[in-house]
Specification:
Shape: flat
Distance between the termini: 38 Å
Helix content: 25-40%
Number of strands: 2
Length: 62
């Protein structure tokens, strides 16, 4: 029976990936939504100075 459950779970993951979107559930302290700006050959996002030295997670939503 565990193999059937695993196969069903993998099938659902494949369906989500085929659509190009995935769902993330994240717990944290604060959130800001910003647009990435061009900076040379890469992109840049400015965050509040009190976030310096903190761990952050960036999720592309578009």
């Amino acid at each position: 029976m565990p193999n059937e459950k695993k196969a069903k779970s993998e099938k659902n993951l494949t369906a989500v990936r085929d659509r190009g979107k995935v769902k993330f559930e994240v717990y944290g302290e604060e959130m800001v939504e910003k647009t990435v700006k061009l900076s040379g050959n890469s992109g840049r996002v400015y965050l509040p100075p009190d976030w310096v030295g903190r761990r952050v997670k960036i999720i592309r939503i578009e």
